[in-house]
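Worked example 4.2. Below are the chains of a multi-component assembly; read each line carefully before continuing.
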Amino acid sequence: MSKRKLLLLFILAFSQTFAQKNDSIFIRKIYDQALSEGHSYEDLRSLCKDVGARLSGSSQAEMAVEWGKNKLQSYNFDKVYLQEIQVPHWERGTKESAWVKTKEGKLISLKILALGGSVGTNGTLRAELVVFHSLDDLKKAKESDVKGKIVLLNQPFDEKMVNTFKAYGACYPIRGDGAVEAAKLGAVGVVVRSLGSSQDLHPHTGSMHYEDKVNKIPAAAIATEQADLLDNLSKKEKLEFIFELDCKSLPDVKSYNVIGEITGTEFPNEIITFGGHLDSWDAGEGAHDDGAGIIHSIEALRILKALNFKPKHTLRVVLFMNEENGNKGGLTYAAWSKEKGEKQIAALESDRGGFAPRGFSCDGSNEQVALLQTFQKTFEPYELHVFEKGYGGVDINPLKSSFEGIPLFGFVPDSQRYFDFHHAESDVFESVNKRELELGCAAVSSMIYLLDSYVK
Amino acid sequence: MSKRKLLLLFILAFSQTFAQKNDSIFIRKIYDQALSEGHSYEDLRSLCKDVGARLSGSSQAEMAVEWGKNKLQSYNFDKVYLQEIQVPHWERGTKESAWVKTKEGKLISLKILALGGSVGTNGTLRAELVVFHSLDDLKKAKESDVKGKIVLLNQPFDEKMVNTFKAYGACYPIRGDGAVEAAKLGAVGVVVRSLGSSQDLHPHTGSMHYEDKVNKIPAAAIATEQADLLDNLSKKEKLEFIFELDCKSLPDVKSYNVIGEITGTEFPNEIITFGGHLDSWDAGEGAHDDGAGIIHSIEALRILKALNFKPKHTLRVVLFMNEENGNKGGLTYAAWSKEKGEKQIAALESDRGGFAPRGFSCDGSNEQVALLQTFQKTFEPYELHVFEKGYGGVDINPLKSSFEGIPLFGFVPDSQRYFDFHHAESDVFESVNKRELELGCAAVSSMIYLLDSYVK
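Applying the procedure described above to all two chains together yields the following structure tokens:
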């Protein structure tokens, strides 16, 4: 090897080491900010308590938009603005009651939550209960076993799955498709076991859908313990299920994504988008889902500004509206950015709760995943260890079709407790640990810093 | 290379791969047992609710010994027995009150917990309050500034430390040595800021010590919020601190370590010891500290038995008594095993709470740490990533001097929430998540299996 080549290699190696050392120093500052001068815990308290649950189309969601705009303005980012969108408007109503009646006429009161998007029962609906343990079981049933009945889909999480999102994914069809499949066989209503990890008395709501030409039947979630109770009782005797819902869908309404930016010094038209979703289900306070993601994202940008970081690319935090029941925020944002002629170079979403960070996933090419993995060493002192191929997030997903080749990153916190709170009344501010939230903010902020430095 | 050598190498590589594959299959079974047929959550509930807090020398500790023996017997291990020890007996008493009085005579009631081992106040004790922010600050003070006064040591956790045990270690001296150092300068009492992560109203107790020839002054912990309140008030005006404690030390009493074993098939006299401590402080229910460690250890052995695992070495679970204020269980156990002529080949302790597993630490030689690191790949599907040099545990630590070269392993769960509960009334069963506990049991059980297979 020539001396010149050797020198070049030496300089290259030295500058890489130097860059990594600088990254480590800067990321330590990010963590110090998050942990000792952070705004995240108070900001989450305010979102949960001053606004509360914030379902698309509700007055609470309207307040959440105001809250978000004020919050971003208070941090003096270069730009803060709203992006208008149209969102579905479904209301739970005031009637949500259920009972089961045994053969001897004994009534047991049950706690249910209508699934988002469900039609109401139009008065009291009562019919014989028939139980299935998965959507596939239901699909295989004879019409004569289902027709005129109310279907209970009691599929529990597979506890053996270490990552709870996998267990959730496996059960998701009973909630998403249960009403359609039950109606195809002539059922008059459907009740699904809540998609949660624990045996408890909280029903967990969530979205469902109907299909054209299939009868729209009312659908509700029941708590895991009560689903098992019904399941066990039904093995011994015929049960009558009785429920009333007056939920309904209304015309779409106007709402907004809330956007804040620090303008890029070198490539202002090249955007790194990151965010969570501002809307939530109407049970609880949307603290983990996705108050935490909103706060991770706002705090990530606040910290970078507080440290006087001048990004090369434009860093844009987006508080997406309507992830839960339509994703109109994510869809509109991607289309709007494309139309403006922007270049989206990377996007990151936090929508898996405010728990202790484990790492990041990357929905991208092998090279993009490999880039992510080069960050692992830098994050080691902060106990992050997951750097792998995986999903980005619902809100940022539409960017993929508008911006070919864009890598999408998902923030990955510990998953064990998430589905104790998800879409349930237990998802309140008090269920979030201050340090776990702060560590999430630091991890997201550090990742945005690294993406600005290394994504091409 | 000769064909013979090549063949040998091939066989070696093949058998290693085969061994790792077998390990992976067996460890998957361990996890399945823990997650879907586990006894841990119900066992912890029973320990916390049927026995409760269990300070050495108390009747609750006596019941805990019975509970432990019954529990181990119910799992039909090869041997279950008690090992007699002598433990200190300190009682909190019934009087535990405190106030601060402002210059204008306004009284503010405070919540305190006597530190374990403290003398009482012998009636109401009142004196001017003087505040320091570390033990070093106190040591540097002039006698005239401290004499006759009550010292508040208000040193908060360093929030910037990612691992909370490091922050705890840095603050530990104010609790352990505060009374001695304050008394050396003539103080009449000492109050320490609770060693906790969060700003709250729970005082956290814990052990302290006295020294011969230094006046024994009463010592109590105060909640973090109230320590800051006093600190802030004291900057504006002179404060009088008033408190009463009637805690006292009584003569040592008889107690027991509780021991269960599966006898080794090849080397019955070679022991792998693992456990946690059965005693706890008297605030809360000792759920994380160290009910979780007790349950991790019992369940680890139960699972191996349920899977019909025949260990080469004797696997011995020890429910140590008196870790919190004397470590008589650990000391007696090490001496007894040595005297019996046993060979202790490895030991493991779980005493850092029932949170989601992060990995294991090893207090041992570089070769022993390297062995631990060979397990990392096997644990990857279970989200364990910490495999490093580090502390084993208080109970197993005395084995080091009795058995030269023994590697000590510590189970390392996530640390973020531990010091919200540690030694405080908040450390109750409800603060433990079922899945996090179960994953800890599986991790410990898998580690015991691997140690039996690979430690020499």
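Take a moment to check your reading of the output against the notes. Residues 143 and 317 of chain B are 50 Å apart (CA to CA). The first strand of chain B starts at residue 79 and ends at 91.
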